[in-house]
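Need tokens for this chain, all 212 residues.
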Amino acid sequence: MFAEVNGIRIHYEVEGEGRPLILLHGNGEDMSIFDVAVEELKDFFKVVTVDSRGHGSSQAPEEYHYADMAEDVHGLITELGLVRPVLFGYSDGGIAGLILASEHPDDLLRLAVGGANTNPSAVDWSGFDVDPEDPLQRLMLEEPHITKADLRAIRVPTLVIAGEFDAVDRSDTEFIAGSIPHGHMYIVPDADHGSYVEHSVILPRLLKDWLI
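Here are the structure tokens for all 212 residues:
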């Protein structure tokens, strides 16, 4: 299914019934990383998976900014008539989730982010082959710039997740969780940046434990 939001044609899918739960993937991926999660969660939630702008089957813009990705989600929530959904965002999706919850504090019931960072310097890039000429990958090298004031504007309960061996500095994960008024941190043992998210049962079981 497709929706025209924020000047971009966004691809999304919906499975299940109940409280809406939006899942946002990371840079260079698409909604398919949540295939296992959707199977685990669709009996408990209306699961909405989204291809971010320029990913999967969604339209590509001329340039990329996390603030625009957050506005895409805000527009999709409005377009689909989702009432106070829960949102989980992974990596770039988590950054967009933080911005969304900061800029639109009444959109969500709860927020969970995994592997999110507040600035590019908080990431150990040694394990990634990042091409600065690729506009999507350049986004990760130039943004985000999320401040403590931005995080303090997030009013909803927020679960901040990272892997034990995440590429995001632990201090930044702690900063995010500690700055959000109702923030909570969970470190996934023996996990790296995405092993507990991509095609994994760990993420949906974490979310069910937190939400149900």
